[in-house]
Design goal:
Elements: H1 2-13, E1 27-36, E2 39-48, H2 50-58, E3 62-69, E4 73-74, H3 77-86, E5 90-94, E6 109-114, E7 122-131, E8 151-155, E9 169-175, E10 178-187, E11 190-193
Bound molecules: 2-acetamido-2-deoxy-beta-D-glucopyranose (3 copies).
Organism: Holotrichia oblita
Protein name: Phosphatidylinositol-glycan biosynthesis class x protein
Length: 196
Amino acid sequence: MFGLLLLSSFNLIYHVYSINDCLDLNISLIRTIDRSGFHNKIKWMVEFLPSDLEELKRAEAKFALYIKIPSGMYVNPDEIDDLSRLAEYSVYIDGRVNVEAPENEAKPHDVFIFLPELYGDKVEIILPVHLRYQLAKIGGGFGKVHLSKPSLLMLTPRKSFKTCGDHLQIKAPCNADNLTKCYWSNISYEAVRLYH
Ligand SMILES: *[C@@H]1O[C@H](CO)[C@@H](O)[C@H](O)[C@H]1NC(C)=O
Ligand SMILES: *[C@@H]1O[C@H](CO)[C@@H](O)[C@H](O)[C@H]1NC(C)=O
Ligand SMILES: *[C@@H]1O[C@H](CO)[C@@H](O)[C@H](O)[C@H]1NC(C)=O
């Protein structure tokens, strides 16, 4: 009798996914920008609910931010190399970056930030970005550049793990040091913007 009770309480703690089960993810992305003229630092705090985190850890879920950098901005590849060496996350730039081109001659590029293995319910990401000269503003500085919200991508090796809802599959690099492409799920999140 005692053994049976123990067994059933274990079942409650170690919830096993059946085919139709899904996890209703609730992730927040809080964005702040440290401005200093042409050189800015974008910070994102990715927050997971502690209950989601346990499930995600068990499923060995990996996350990445996919950011489309418009032609009015750039990330500096040298700076990104330094950052990737120091930070816990790694960054991959897809596309050639000309750090000297003014906005009208520059091309947009894509940035993928691979989050470290999940161990806490908050992950802070910092991305240094630089504004380009705008032709109309030469001598006069810089104008406004619109940076769209990043896409939050998730990769789960376990086929039995499902999150609720339909997710668009995005073909993107599997990690920063290997050009193999993986199909990531585009996950929705709650976007919060803080200004200072
Ligand atoms: C997500 O979690 C936050 C914090 O607990 C809560 O305020 C919010 O309502 C939740 N959103 C949804 C869609 O469940
Ligand atoms: C690249 O990454 C994929 C997915 O993580 C892995 O299966 C593959 O072995 C890696 N290839 C190399 C050359 O490291
Ligand atoms: C991911 O989904 C959001 C809407 O939930 C959309 O705005 C975004 O463009 C999608 N990302 C990609 C890369 O398709």
